[in-house]
Amino acid sequence: MARKRECLYKPKYGFKLIESIEKVGKNEKSIYKRLDQGPLKISIYAKPDAFQHYESGFIAAKNCSSERTNHAVVLLGAVKENGIPLWYIRNSYGPDWGINGHAKLKMGENTCHMLHRERKKAECLYEPNNALKLIKSIRKLKKKEEESIYRRLKQGPVKISIYAKPDAFQHYKSGFITVEKCSNKERTNHAVVLLGAVKEDGIPLWYIRNSYGPDWGINGHAKLMMGENTCGMLRQKSVYVTVK
């Protein structure tokens, strides 16, 4: 049984939850236009040598062919380097992968099969005036406590590490997960994005986004009980980003 703790939920800090998940057209121009409203989830082919072992620079279609997609990443925006337009993505492999957990894909080539179909030729989509802000730094919260995480959420999502227990987390479908179902004693083995807090039937809950796709949980999301260090979410310091 978990100890009784002060309720951390504060209505005035409540975050809006996802209302719907929508798909964008299968062309890079549609993707580019949609980015002005926020990041997008794209499916790609994570080729072992070109993508999984990526360290720096950018990935081109010739290095990451159009095989069946097997991985999902978050598309943050577009940049231009040495005259070359590039997509800027965030991966879920952690900060030790790529450029602090991020990578660049060449635009206009359906690199790593991000469109799920071949495109022979595409116009240059880069528009300087529409460039999104890029990540300036990746920082860790100083304290391993839920109150610190709660306060930081007012400025945006936070990355947390958890123990993804097979029966309680990996096979999660609905409702909320408690520490009785997902221990806080095990070593963490997975990362998720903490979006905010909700309250259901008087119970304060964390609302998270996972990387398993929309068929998992509640359209790719889940709820964890607050105040219990559920799934060991406090075992490692939480991470957040600042932008340029």
Describe this structure in words.
The strands form three sheets. A four-stranded antiparallel β-sheet has the order 1-2-3-4, with helices on one face. Strands 6-7-8-9 form a four-stranded antiparallel β-sheet, covered by helices on one side. The chain has a two-stranded antiparallel sheet with strand order 5-10. A hairpin with a 2-residue loop joins strand 7 (190-200) and strand 8 (203-209). The chain has two domains: 28-133, Alpha-Beta Complex (Cathepsin B, Chain A), CATH 3.90.70; 138-243, Alpha-Beta Complex (Cathepsin B, Chain A), CATH 3.90.70.10. With 244 residues, the chain is mainly beta. The chain has helices at residues 28-34, 48-52, 146-152, 166-170, and strands spanning 40-44, 71-81, 84-90, 102-106, 135-140, 158-162, 190-200, 203-209, 221-225, 239-243. The model has no long low-confidence stretch (mean pLDDT 82). It is built from four helices and ten strands, in the order H-E-H-E-E-E-E-H-E-H-E-E-E-E. Belongs to the peptidase C1 family. GO terms for molecular function: cysteine-type peptidase activity. One of its GO terms (biological process) is proteolysis.
